[in-house]
Amino acid sequence: MSSPLQRGGLRSLSASSLYVSVPSDDRDSDQTSEGDSDSLSADEGSDFEDSSRRNMKKRAAKRPPKTTPVAKHPKKGPRMVRGHSQKESELPASDLFDAVKGAKSDMQSLVDEWLESYKQNQDSGFLELINFFIRSCGCKGTVTLEMFKKLSNSEIIWHLTEQFNEDSGDYPLTAPGPSWKKFQGSFCEFVRTLVYQCQYSLLYDGFPMDNLISLLTGLSDSQVRAFRHTSTLAAMKLMTSLVRVALQLSLHRDNNQRQYEAERNKVPGQRAPERLESLLEKRKELQEHQEEIEGMMNALFRGVFVHRYRDVLPEIRAICMEELGSWMQSYSSSFLTDSYLKYIGWTLHDKHREVRLKCLKALKGLYSNRDLTARLELFTSRFKDRMVSMVMDREYDVAVEAVRLLILILKNMEGVLTDADCESIYPVVYASNRALASAAGEFLYWKLFYPEYETRSVGGRERRRSPQTQRTFFHLLLSFFVESELHDHAAYLVDSLWDCAGSQLKDWESLTSLLLEKDQNLGDVQESTLIEILVSSVRQASEGHPPVGRVTGKKGLTLKERKIQADDKVKLTEHLIPLLPQLLAKFSADAEKVAPLLQLLNYFDLNIYCTRRLEKHLELFLQQLQEVVVKHADPAVLEAGAHALYLLCNPEFTFFGRVDFARSQLVDLLADRFQQELEELLQSSFLDEDEVYSLAATLKRLSAFYNAHDLTRWELYEPCYRLLRKAVDTGAVPRQVILPALTLVYFSILWTLAHLSGSGASQKQLLSLKGRMVTFCELCQSCLSDVDPEIQEQAFVLLSDILIIFSPQMIVGGRDFLRPLVFLPEATLQSELASFLMDHVFIQPGEMVKGHSQEDHLQIEQLHQRRRLLAGFCKLLLFGVLEMDAASDVFKHYNKFYNDYGDIIKETLTRARQIDRSHCSRILLLSLKQLYTELLQEHGPQGLNELPAFIEMRDLARRFALSFGPHQLQNRDLVVMLHKEGIKFSLSELPPAGSSGQPPNLAFLELLSEFSPRLFHQDKQLLLSYLEKCLQRVPQAPSHPWSSVTTYCHSLSPVENPTEASPQGYPHSKKRRIEGSSRQHREDSASSQEESLQLNSVPPTPTLTSTAVKTRQPMEGLQEMEEGSSESEFTQSQLLSGTQRSRFLSPQHSQTPFNPSGASLGNQLTRLSLLEEDEDKEELETQNESGEEWQDPDKHSSPSEPGLDLLDSTELNIEIVEKSLQLIVSYHPLNSKQH
């Protein structure tokens, strides 16, 4: 087929000549990729290769030499664009571009205006169209008439590329802002309208369309991203419009052929020769037009699509896939072939989600048409595995589209998806993402449920589903859930099927009839599952939100959905109120089935009991509830029953009196039984198992109801206290009795507190409650030493809760009258709580597992229980109930148990810092001291730093150091204090007299070295001096430095870290200052012999440095220093940069070269970062792990804050300092200019 692009009229364009040299700072340096993945790389090995290898030739090979069109004077002079900007006011006038951008008029009239101008002056009109596309790329250049006459397309593009000074990465298709938001839509609409309006005239002219296609093809091969992106979009939209024109031509040809055949088949007397000739001429004309359109499409496909579908820019690849799908759907006779389908199949492997998404949507459009599926068999067999695997795509929206595509394949291509394919999709119904789970639920519906029971349309109407079909649905649902064994909770399966099978799941009549049917032939597991399905569907219809843990993107229900929800709630309530007592009566013996049935009351509209006069069913329900409570002692059943009764005990209901009476009857029964059984226990010396079980069950029932109802008037505190006192004194009370008795006493105290908090309580009542609470704490304290771990854990949980309730926090909020109730535990109780934590929470995995048969879910439950215990202890710390120093018992396990409790300990550390930063720092040090002392006592001082436990301690110290965050100035005094206390501890014990060994705690210095990166350069030097003074007290000096001292001194090396250049946020001096009083100040500081290591109240100003090293320093936001600062402060800050040379340390450590810090004077720096690339990678975790832990916006350090003075304990080497200062001043650039 001969294309007009091949016959002539096109300007020559060499693809290789388009790649021009582009400076990297002005243009996108991305090269067009020859393949983003293996699936996009080559045509070799494809099933479709035999049909399309010849189609992959370069577009340039088919272009004829350039033909210069006849030039006419343009209607408008050339307009030079001065640059691309996001502001419309800065753009030059361009009627076409501005009209499309602003969408001020409809596109048809805009295109008509351009056509009129083109008819008046073809060159001017065509240049206007070309410059519109150039302008749409964001290019500041224009194509003039002279360029159009003399230059080839490749030369024009090269010229435009040279003028494309891309100030930013934005161009009209990607620029932000409201003015550009709708540009892409308007741009595409313009291209579509242009082809539509030209389809009967200029489209076959040869000059405008062919030259436009040639230009777009050249631009799409450019290295400039804006050119490539915009021209590809224009070319693909142009191709889409041409496909529509070709489709219309094909229809016209078919009509013409039918008319010709009809006319020719007439008898000779009726045949009109003129009409036959006219139809032949028309067919010839349509054939020519069809060939020209196909030539244009062929040029666009080979010149643009074949190269751009694997472009490096994912937006371009997505455009190609989207438009290819559109061509296949609209003109399937030409494009729905394997030679085109292969591009979509290859691109299914694209690494970018948007491209994969466009491929799946394109395929959905094809598979949704049953007439087209026969032509997709080869493609499906080749790429089915990939489509099935995309169900597990890491992007949820892609996975959702993949499932929906498979649903279409399942519906329209029978037998294609095997059982193995379907089984890989079934587990997705339990996915956490609701959209994905819902799509998988629809697939499950069409695969398993629809073929078996769905009714067919009869006479155009769908008859109502029969009860038998509904039963079939629920039997299939039960079989899938039970036999698949994919999940333990049917609520997630119900939610997944809700959108596609909600009407079936809301058929509560069929559900309840199945459950109440005598000969239902359902097993025990099936009955439990069916009850769970019933409860889940009722909850879903009543509340309208998915189960816990399933994420949904919906923010709320629409008005229509709320109306449906309200109607469903009324409907289910009316149906289930009469049947709930029957269900409870049938399954009353099974605790696993009764508990969810009692939960149904949570989703009822309880007013219907009154409005529908259903009180008799309420009476039946209360009777069944009492029977269930008396019959069962399972916590889940008792909790559900107590909560159901709590819902009915609302004084606003007219039936409240009836329910309250039933509650009193039930509690009277339980209380009387408890009193009777308790007397038997207290009086007899031995109880058999049945008596113990009966008493324990009664206590459990009372405890469950005491949690939801006020049972104070039954006075259960005294008998329970007597029971617990006997248990503590004699140990003769069984464990199963003690546990609920503790809970009963706990609830009794809380209900009494609730009464006293709401009214003016007398002092006598408050003191009585205080006495009860103290007595209860003593009982729990005694239980902490019980031999049974369950009693210990229960006592600890109740203690931690009640101590927080009666902590000083209870008087906050205008409740000062409760001050007599405030209680703080004694030291012995605090110690026992901490000991319990060590014995029950921080235990090794080997200590947790009693045997090898323990199941995983049991270990998870135990872990949750331990986390609950730890959280209770941490709350006691943060609420001030326990001494904060006890937090060291928690912090010292931060690293070792990070996987189990890291989040809890980290939050505790953060809250403790907010309470008292200084105290929290001391606690961190105390944690390290305790661990070190334990290790020292166990292994001795020899080789301590080589033990694995010591290495773990170093990791813990590093994690503690990271918790200080990047704000060095705020934490400066804390880190220095930590180092000082650590040095004191390391030298607190001296070696025995006559021994040449090192102090036993000296290895602690290696732990301190992990905190050294948090120090400023000046503080490091002065800490070295302080360490020397402390080492001088050690009587035996070694012949060579101890390794721990060497390690610590190396961490304090004066070699400056860029992080320590200067205190963050401290205002550097902007003026040069004289050294007039420096000598006097040095004399004063040299005479200071105090032992304390303190920070100066004014952080030191860094000394002058050469500009040659300025690029190595982090640039920080500085403020101007006050003009009134004294010269002595500046001199003092210079002295802080000096180093004291130790007479005790080895030469290699004592004579460290002086490296000044700070920035040159007169420079206003900007804050960029405190961390440099050469810092330890683990230190960079500070931002994520604990960078915010030590940020206190209310506690900023300031020069006026009283602080510690580092000079008080330092004997400076005056000569070294003076020489260093002279050396710095002499090399400073300001001084060099003056000298």
TrEMBL record:
GO terms classed as biological process: cell division; chromosome segregation; establishment of meiotic sister chromatid cohesion; meiotic cell cycle
Pfam family for this entry, one: SCD
UniProt domain SCD: residue ranges: 305-390
Subcellular location per the Swiss-Prot or TrEMBL entry: Chromosome; Nucleus; Chromosome, Centromere
Compositional bias (Basic and acidic residues): 1074-1085
Gene Ontology cellular-component terms listed: chromatin; chromosome, centromeric region; meiotic cohesin complex; nucleus
Low complexity bias locations: 1-18
Residue span of region Disordered: 1-94, 1054-1207
Record-level Gene Ontology MF annotations: chromatin binding
Origin: domain of life: Eukaryota
PANTHER family in alphabetical order: COHESIN SUBUNIT SA-3, STROMAL ANTIGEN
Family membership noted in the UniProt record: Belongs to the SCC3 family.
Name of the protein: Cohesin subunit SA
Gene source species: Pipistrellus kuhlii
